[in-house]
Amino acid sequence: MDEIVPAVLLSIGLLLVILTYRHPSLAGAACPAGLAIWFACSLRPLDKDTSGQTLRPLGRPMSIAHRGGAHDAPENTLTAVRQAAKNGADAVELDLEFTADGVPVIMHDSTVDRTTDGVGPLSSITYAELSQLNAASKHRLRKVFSSEMVPRLEEAVKECMRLNLTIYFDVKGSADKSAAALKQAYNTWPQLYKKGIVCSFNPWVIYKMRLADPAVVTALTHRRWSFSHTGGGEPYFTSWFKHYPAMLLDVFHDWAVHYCYWSFCGVSAFLCQKNFISPDDVDFWAKRGVEVIIWTVNQAIEKAYFRNVLDCSCITDSLVEDCEPHY
């Protein structure tokens, strides 16, 4: 019930504004009411000293292995986690998804096709079936790492805690299921309050996580033009009828991320794609007490700039050499 009330109040507030904005006499009352509900539902961020113990435990920018270091070992596997620790990572970014039978697992895609020798959507595969697939079968180093399983969430957390690695949980699946699974993980491993960050492109995921546990450090992930273009910059749509509305949605979403979502969710960090960051952007977030973390940074010269000039942690696919990005 505690989780439902804020969402209902927020929806009522927005609905009041939408229905009455054309009527000045009504808008005079509805807009302030909507804003009041918005602020009432907003979540207070953790203080910077508390979140800083997780985001900057060593007092310097962190080296974060993207999907465990997708270039250096099969992504999102226990071997990748171990390899990242061996290569000097301070943290790993791991993706959270769910199987057909509700088991939380570490996988980026909604299908198993790209990273395993199986096919089909993850949502139609049970964990027993998933455990039979080889998560190293299509990796460039598959001759070195011949056979890897897709790990369960609990297996990945246990290994990261053993190796003293901070974890960035990138939530891909259901907000409710993810919040419940991560809350259980934090209860099992209380050190995650100092060694874990929950992040997502979806603000609702972050909001639900902070409702479930306000003490969890959270971050919003963002890439400009994400509704209209791929990570490589190619348009999603060939039809202008779809492409330009998607771009308009991108403009609104970018504004909302910078001026609404972050404060509504009470996030402590902002994960930004490297092509859309500048000293002014870092300053913008610093004034709001939000730490900037940059992804995916795979060139040594870029890592040096972001760490030494912008003083930002970097998420990278490789800790040992320059490489192309893994989308």
From TrEMBL:
Q: Which GO terms describe its cellular component?
A: plasma membrane
Domain GP-PDE as annotated: residue spans: 61-327
According to the UniProt entry, where is the signal peptide? none
- Which InterPro entries does the UniProt entry name for this protein? GP_PDE_dom (IPR030395), PLC-like_Pdiesterase_TIM-brl (IPR017946)
Question: Matching Gene3D superfamilies, A to Z?
Answer: Phosphatidylinositol (PI) phosphodiesterase
Q: Name one GO molecular function term.
A: glycerophosphodiester phosphodiesterase activity
**Pfam name, any one:** GDPD
GO process terms (BP) = ethanolamine metabolic process; N-acylethanolamine metabolic process; phospholipid metabolic process
Q: Domain of life here?
A: Eukaryota
The record ties this protein, via PANTHER family, to: GLYCEROPHOSPHODIESTER PHOSPHODIESTERASE 1
Q: Which family does it belong to?
A: Belongs to the glycerophosphoryl diester phosphodiesterase family.
Q: What is this protein called?
A: Glycerophosphodiester phosphodiesterase 1
